[in-house]
Amino acid sequence: MVSAIIRAYAGGRAQAASDLDLELKKFDNHAYENNNARPLNEVQLRQLEGTAGTTFLPEYIASLYGGIFVKVVDADALDNVELYAMSMVTSTKRGAVDLEIAKALADGSISQAEADEIMRAHEAHMSARHTEVLSAIALHRARSGVAA
């Protein structure tokens, strides 16, 4: 998970280290747990993910409990254009699930590795869809004192 955050980070390891005010060698030791160094802590990981715009940490934690991470969007920042963009992301992720199933079935059966990839794509789709549904409700919820 830490490697995925670093790979997604603009500027890579060097920029991530700088943003955490760590020398590169010290950052590497913490990130990869070398030389008996403690791993990066939750605050550091959240800082990196906030900058990178990723959600690997909550996705990982949710998966430990058999769940999926669903991002809750700030209703005040939503509009119909944003909702439409979410629906396109959701559609794309559904297509990715269907594509993984089709690829897996090309030889007539689904291996464990293929099943894992199908489920990874499915979880990403369900997360996106749930976020989209919550956002639609939040955006169009009847508010007291607001004319419909």
- Which H/E pattern describes the elements? HHHHHHH
Helix content: 55-70%
Count of separate structural domains: 2
* Largest beta-sheet details: none
Count all strands and give the number: 0
Organism: Pseudomonas putida (Arthrobacter siderocapsulatus)
Protein name: Phage protein
InterPro entries: YmfL-like
Description:
It comes from Pseudomonas putida. This is Phage protein. The chain is mainly alpha-helical and about 150 residues long. It has two domains: about 1-65; about 75-140. Helix content is about 65%, strand content about 0%. The mean pLDDT is about 90.
What are the key terms here?
148 residues, single chain, flat, 2 domains, mainly alpha, 7 helices
Present the secondary structure layout.
Elements: H1 2-8, H2 12-19, H3 24-31, H4 42-52, H5 56-64, H6 80-105, H7 112-140
Helix pairs in contact: 1-4, 2-3, 6-7
Organism: Pseudomonas putida
Protein name: Phage protein
In short:
The protein is mainly alpha-helical.
